[in-house]
Amino acid sequence: MSEQPVRVAQLSCGPEHSGVQKEIYDAAAAVNAEMFFPDVTLADIRRSYDAFGLEARSGDLKLAIARAMALVEGKVEADAVFIATCFRCAEAAIVRNELRRYIHEHSDLPVVSYSFTERTTSGTLLTRMEALTTIARRRALLAREVQTGTTMGIDSGSATTKAVIMQDNKIIGTGWMPTTEVMDSANGVIEAALKEAGLEMADIEALGTTGYGRYLIGKKLGADLIQEELTVNSKGAVYLADRQRGEATVIDIGGMDNKAISVQDGIPGTFTMGGICAGASGRFLEMTAKRIGVDITDLGQIAMKGISKTVPMNSYCIVFGTQSLVNALAEGNSKEDVAAAACRSVAEQVFEQQLQEVDIKEPVIMVGGTSLIEGLVHEMGELLQTNILVPHHSQYIGAVGSALLASGFIEEK
Amino acid sequence: MAKVFIFPATSLVLSDMVERWGHEALGAATGIRERIQTASLDSPPLQMTPEDPKKGLKYAAVEVPCGVRGRMSLYGPMIEEADAAIIINDADLSFGCMGCARTNELVMFMVRQRKGMPVLDIKYPQTDDEGVAFVTQIKEFLTGLEGESDE
């Protein structure tokens, strides 16, 4: 029997006029969710924007405020909330941010906010919708704190593929390689992980996949759990950092996009995904390492020896950022300073573009391959004025989260 | 008969008054009716497509949010087509809500920029007396338009 659709309340301004409403519907349908607009009366709208205290001029934003209050007050029932407004609208950005914070503080509804352009596609929205529906639908699974049995997690990221084998709450095998052909890379990391663990594939009791290649790998290998990386990484991060209870913020600067997730008891509350430009991604750091002639694994330590502020670097574009890098080297700056500036540039964009959209609650846990770049972690810590936690095996976060969650399926077999 | 652009463009009261005095009201209902009566189903509920914000580039630059440009692709052609316009300033939400404050600013600016076009620019009434004066002013404006076309 098919599951009931997850009811996602839409609070928005503009998507129907921008031609992206259909994309929102398509993304929701792909994960068996149903978008709806909470019903409110004219009196509710008048009362709400006075009571909320934010004097938005836009009628649609006033309506969004009234709808948010109806959800919080329980006048309208929903499983999750999707907030969407135009990219570049200052008023909408203020309302979007305050509504997200308001719902997060006054209810346990998972919220995702997104600023769209007319080029937003359902594919862009899919991971966010999938995360929303997972949180609403699989709270019991996400509450899992201990891995049991022998399970494997595979994380097929845009840059690298990782596999982890866990047994009785311990990591016993790992595999890592750059992502080329998705299945070839997956088979490679599986082989490495099995070898390290001294096991055969037949010994694996449950399998979970995540990352961009999750569907392909999950289908081919008959995975028990095929899950987007927002929920999986949150779970993996709090597990590895031993912060399963209470608040935390997870930052994952990836090869292609970045995730900033506000977590409560291991369950994501609000999150953002994607940056403005690849200038705020692991790719830019890879390019930097190549340009200054060092291995990416050494970049972080080199950056720690430099002073980031001596080299001006464009934080908002990978092309201009690279220009700044080339100019800085041509002007005779040391590779240490350039490496530090590149780390700062990435941290700044993530801080300014993404971390403003989630509530930063300590501890801040950095995960993913870039969390091993010491200079980047240092710069992020400087910007956030906090000591950032980088758990062991942080680069395997998605695979660990998958292996942990997949163990919930062993009992069902 | 004159084509009268109304603001707020969603106001049924204004639309009705314009029609009662024998003119054609140009408002949101006109633009949206065309959208929802289009045979294909592109982007419910308005059947806007990503092409519309591109058409809106005629009225607002690319750095303006896509929701503004999408709305302008509806309102812009109507303002160009209008013979006259009525702008109600600071209207109550119930009088005809216009969704986007930034679009509203641009729409009113465009109307006021149309040199030579008669525009009734009045404030939304707050009392009964002001309400009577408000309706009278609109009536006189619309009757005057009839006079102009009669000449």
Q: Can you tell me about this structure?
A:
The complex is a heterodimer of chains A (413) and B (151). Helix content of chain A is 45%, strand content 20%. Chain A is an alpha/beta fold. In chain A, α9 (214-221) links the parallel β8 (206-211) and β9. Chain A is globular and about 65 Å long. Chain B has seven helices and four strands. Chain B is an alpha/beta fold. The interface between A and B is medium-sized, with 34 and 31 residues.
Task: Give a quick summary of the entry.
The complex is a heterodimer of chains A (413) and B (151). Chain A has 413 residues and is an alpha/beta fold. Chain A has helices at 15-18, 21-30, 42-52, 59-72, 90-106, 122-137, 139-142, 182-197, 214-221, 229-240, 282-291, 296-304, 318-330, 335-354, 374-384, 397-406, and strands at 6-13, 33-36, 80-86, 111-116, 150-156, 160-167, 170-178, 206-211, 225-226, 247-253, 258-264, 267-273, 364-367.
Key features of this structure:
heterodimer, A: 413 residues, alpha/beta, five-stranded mixed β-sheet, B: alpha/beta, four-stranded parallel β-sheet, 4 strands, globular
The largest beta-sheet of chain A arranges its strands as 2-1-3-4-12-11-10-13
Low-pLDDT segments, ≥5 res of chain B: none
Q: What distance lies between the first and last C-alpha atoms of chain A, to the nearest angstrom? A: 18 Å
Mean pLDDT of chain B: 90
Helix content class of chain A: 40-55%
